[in-house]
Amino acid sequence: MRLGFSTHYYVYESLDTAHIDEIKSLGYKEVELWGMAPNIDLRDKERIERVKYCLEKNGIRAASFHGPLYRRISDSPAREWLYLSSSDEHKREESVSRNLEIISLMADFNSSILVIHFDLEEGAMISRAFDNFRKSIDVILCKNPKKGIRIAIENTNEHTTSGKLMDFIRDYPSKDVGICLDLGHANMYENPCDAIKICGKRLIHTHLSDNDGKGDLHLIPGKGNIDWKKVTKTASEIGYNGLLMLEIRKEASLEYLEAEKIKAILGI
């Protein structure tokens, strides 16, 4: 297993060379790029090229991208969320289109995994939302211009626990669709180690953050109640050899973010 760093850490900032240099200084060699503005703004081609060059110069691989969840987070609280499960066809198609734009960009970065969410609009009917979500995934797979890129569906709520995701992806080939297990989310809705076992060979990606089992706090591992050594031991037992992608909120200090310190907490 390898440790990576998500640029979710800089979610309110336009990603640039200074951020990449900081990630390099912490000892990370792989990242997940947060595929939405202002972090990654598809309109800012010059900045994207600058980030790409800086990653290459520093020997850092953009292993994965997170698919867009909103138009632009800086517009909070008025920002509009994007739902692949939307019952509004126009909104659903916009979300699909934005994910396809990210997939096109991923090939330039030699990235292989796109993380997406099954999120719910207020008042949504669960069964209909899942139907809409499946329709979106089918279109993304059909129109995906870059073969070799896999979709990793993330567990985000009580409707996407490991068992429910396994039921949902059963009809999709493993070469196309798998699960991104967010261990922080799993800690809120199920047992993280049990979730790893349930996902088994369909586990292709992970997100790491800690919490108290009640709120999605995105804390540094070790600051919540997750038993991280047990988690990584379980992942090893099922043969998982992918990324452990750190996805945390910004800290006042970089002191505890060094890759070697996180690895010690994880026991890897």
UniProtKB/TrEMBL annotation:
InterPro entries the UniProt entry points to: IolE/XylAMocC-like, Xyl_isomerase-like_sf, Xyl_isomerase-like_TIM-brl
Pfam families assigned to the protein according to its UniProt record, in alphabetical order: AP_endonuc_2
Domain Xylose isomerase-like TIM barrel: 20-252
Lineage: superkingdom: Bacteria
Protein name as it appears in the record: Xylose isomerase-like TIM barrel domain-containing protein
